[in-house]
Amino acid sequence: MKAIIVGAGEVGFHIAKRLASENKDVVVIDRNPAVLQRILEHMDVQVLEGSGCSPLVLGEAGITKADMLLAVTDSDEINLMACTFANMLAPGLTKLARIRNDEYTAYGQQLAKGIGIGIIINPEVEVVRTIEHMLRAPGAVDICDLADGRIKIVGTWITSGNPMAGTSLVDLRRKAGDMQLIVAAIVRDDKVIVPTGSDEILEGDLVYFVCEDSQLQSVFSFLGNRSGKKSSVLIIGGGNIGLRLARALEKKPIHVKLMDKDPERCAVLAGELDRTVVLVGDGTDQEALLEENIGAMDVAVTMTGNEESNILASLLAKKLGTPMAITRLNKIEYMPLVRAIGLEHIVSPRLSAVNSIFKHVRKGGVLSAVAIKDGAEALEALVGPESDLVGRALKDLTFPKGVLVLCIMRADTVLIPSGFDVIQRGDRLFILSLTESIPGVERMLSRGQEQG
Amino acid sequence: MRWTIALHVTGLILLCVGLCMFLPLACGWYYDDNSVAPLFLSLCVTVLAGAFLMFSFKRPKPLVINHREGMVIVSLGWAACAFFGALPFVLGGFPSFTDAFFESVSGFTTTGASILTNIEALPKGLLFWRSLTHWLGGMGIIVLTIAILPFLGVGGMQLYKAEVPGPVADKLQPRIKDTAMSLWKVYVFFTVAQVVLLMFGGMNLFESICHAFGTMATGGFSTRNTSIAAYDSAYIDGVITFFMLVAGVNFALHFQLFRGRPLTVWRDPEFRFFAILVLVLTAVVTFSIQSSSYSSWPEALRFGSFQVASILTTTGYATADYELWLPLPQGVLLLCMFIGGCAGSTAGGIKCMRVMLLFKHSYRELFRLVHPRAVLPLKFGPKLVKEEVLTSIWGFFVLFIVLFVLSALALAAMGVDVLTSFAAVVACIGNIGPGLGEVGPVDNYAAIPTLGKWVLSFCMLLGRLEIYTVLVLFMPEFWRK
C-alpha cells in the first residue's frame, strides 16, 4: 500500500512512523526542510519538499499510483486544497482531511460529493469526548470508544497499595465473577505485553482493559480506584477546544469556569456560553487561581495552546489542592516525562487525530483502531459474509505472534471467547495486536473479502 | 557509538561478500585451474568470520543505527571486505600480503590499479574474482546488503548516506530497500546488455563478463596484459566507450529513464554538464592527436574518445598509450582525473556536480564584487542549493586537495619520482587506476615501495567513500562519549 501524507507536523510524523513500521510505502510532503530532515532520521520513508496543495508536487509524489492521501497539516484550507487537487489527478483515491473548523465539518456530505473527501477528521471533537470520559471515570488515564461507545478500552495505573497488585490474570478473572472484565494489555517499563493467564499485574503497571460501557463504574471500584462525582471544573485556556469543552460540560450538572488571558477573547467566550463563568486571568498565576478558590474545584483542565504553560498550570492546580488535573499536550515526546512529575491525565489533540486517522487506514473491515502506547493497537473488525473466518473456531485460526482476541460482539451481547467459539457472519471481533503483527492480522481479516 | 551493532552489521556484510565468492569458485571449477583451493578456503574463512561476528554480537530490536554508527559500519565494512577479499590472492600466490591487499582494495573501490606484471598468467578463477570485486564495489557493497536484507530500515538510510557518492543522497522509492533494489536492477540490466554486445564483437563469455564488470563499475581491471588494446577492434572499443559513459551518469537518472521519463534525464543540469564536457574534451583530444599520432580522423576519434571516457568516468581501461601523445591531450586527461563522473554513478573523482557548484559559487562571489547588494541564491537546475551543501562541497574540495598533496609528498619521500607520485595519488584517490610516469596506462604499480602501496590503498578507500566518512573516524571528537 502506498500512502501520501501532506504535512510533516506532529500528526504527520506519527502517522508516517506507524505506517512505515508496518512496511507500507510512505511519501511525506512538507514545505519545511527541517521537519523533513527529522523524519528521515527516524523512519524509512520518502520525503518531498514542496507545498502539498501543489498539483505538481502531488504528481511528483506519485499520486496516481497511491492508495491514500492523508492531508494532515495544521491548516484546514491547505488540507482541503490538497484533497481538491488529488481528486482531479486521481479521482478514485481515498482522501482524508484533518479539519478543525466546524464551518467546514458541517458540510461533510457536500465535501464528499464535491471533491470526494471520504473522511474528515476533527480531533477537537475527539479530545472533548475523551475529557468527558475521564471526568466520568477519573481512574482512567486513557479511555477510548469501541463499537460506537458501547465498549470501552481503558488504561489505568496500578498504584502502590492497589489490592490487585500481584494478582495473576486467572485469579483476577475468578474474583471478578460475573463482571465481564478483559485485560487487553499491560504496559510495563514502556513496553507493551500481550498478557496470558499466568501473567501477573504488578505495581506501577499501566493496565488496559476492555469492558462494556454500563459496567465501567463497577469495574473501576473492583480495581480499587476511587471515583466520585465531579461537580466543578475549571478550564484554563479558551481556545477552540476550551470553548467546545465548556459548551459540552455546561449541559450537564457541572459548574464550569473558563479562564483565558485575553480579555477580548473572553468577551467572545462569554457571548457564546450561557452558564459558564468566564474569567480573565493567567492560568500560571497563583494569585488568580487562589482567588477563584482552585483548591475547592474538583478538576482543572489546562487547554491553552502552549505546552509548557499547560504543564505549569496543571502542576500549580494540583499543588493548590485540586485532586485531578487534565493537561493538553501535543509533543508526544513529553508524555513519558509528565507522568514522572505527577500529571496522569493527558489529552492530545494530535494523538487523537492520529488514532482517528488510523482506523480509516486499516483494511479488512476494521471499524476502529486504538493505539496503545507505541507498541500495540486494539482493533475492532466486522466479519463480513464473504470472510474466510466465518464458521471457524478460534482455536483453529493461526494468528500471528502477539495477537489476542479480546471479545466478540454478536448481535447486542458481548462474549468472552474460548477456543471453541465459532465465528459467525456479522460478528464484531475485538483484537489486540502488537504493531509488528498488524499487517498479518489485516491479511487474515481481509482474506476472502476482497475477492467477494 | 555501540560496537555490538557495528560488528554485527559488519558480519552481515562479510557474509554477503563471502557468499559472492561462490561465483569465482564455480568459474575456477569449470576451467579446472588451480584457483579452486584458494577460493574455497577464502570463502569458508570469510563466511565463518561473518557468521562469527553476526552471532557473537546480537542486534538490538528494532535495529536503529545513528549516523555515527553508520559511518563506522561503512568504513569498517569496506576495510573488512578489502581484507577478506585479499585472501584468494594471498593463497593464490601473490608476492606479498601488501600486494594482495592493494589489489583487493583497488578492486572493491573500482580503481583498477594493479600490481600484476603478467595478468594473463593468473588462473581464471582469480581473474573472475578480481573483476567481481569491481562489480560489487561499483554499486556498493552496502547498497547490496540493504537490497538483500529487509530489516535494515531506517538504519539502512544512514548506511546509504555514508556510502553513496555525491553531496546529497536521495531516495528513489519510499523505502530504502526498494531504492537499493532499483539501483541494482538498473546496474544488472546494463551489465547483462554489455555482456551480450561484447559477445557479438567476438569476445568469449568469460572475458565479456569480466570486462562488463570492470566497465559498469568504472573499475578497469582487464583480463589481458594490454587491456582493451589486446582486441584491437573498433566495435569493442565503441561498446566499452558507450557503457563507460553510461556508468558515469547518475543511476537515479537511468532509473527515471526506465520509468519512461526521458525528459528528466535531459533536464538534469549535471547530465548536461557531463555530456558537454565529454563532447568538448573528446573534440580537443581528437584534434590534437590526429596530426601527431594517428593518420585518419576516425582513428583519432576512436582512440581519443575512448581515453577521454575511460579517464573521465575513472574507469582506466586503455587502448592507447597516451603518454606518447602531445602534452595538451595528456593535460586534458589529467584534468579528467580530477573531475570524474556524475554524483550517484559508480565513477570516482571530485564529481561533476561538485565541480559545477564550485564554479557557480566562485562566479557568484565575483558577481557580488560588482553588485554588493545583490541577493544571489545558488541554483542547480530549478532547485535552490542549501548553504550547508555548498559548505560541505568546499570542505570536500579542500580535503581532496590537501590529501592529494600530502600523500604525493609521502610517496616522493619514499623515493618515487615527482610525476609518478602525484599521478599515482590522483589516480588512486579518484579511483581511476592508470596515471602518468611510472604508473602510466601500460605500466603497473608493482614498483611502488611497500609503504607507498599502503598509502595508496588508504587513498583509494578515502576516494570511494568520499573522504568524509573515513576521515571523520580519525577525529578524537568522534570517539568522545
TrEMBL record, chain B:
Ranges in a coiled coil: none
Annotated TM spans: 12-31, 37-57, 69-91, 132-152, 186-206, 234-253, 273-291, 331-350, 393-416, 454-475
GO MF terms, alphabetically ordered: metal ion binding; potassium:chloride symporter activity
One GO CC annotation: plasma membrane
Entry keywords, A to Z: Cell inner membrane, Cell membrane, Ion transport, Membrane, Metal-binding, Potassium, Potassium transport, Transmembrane, Transmembrane helix, Transport
Membrane disposition: Multi-pass membrane protein
InterPro entries, alphabetized: Cat_transpt, TrkH
Binding site residues for K(+): T110, T111, G219, T314, T315, N431
Pfam families per the UniProt record, alphabetical: TrkH (PF02386)
Subcellular location: Cell inner membrane
Domain of life per record: Bacteria
Principal location: membrane
Protein family: Belongs to the TrkH potassium transport family.
Name of this protein: Trk system potassium uptake protein TrkH
Protein source organism: Desulfomicrobium apsheronum
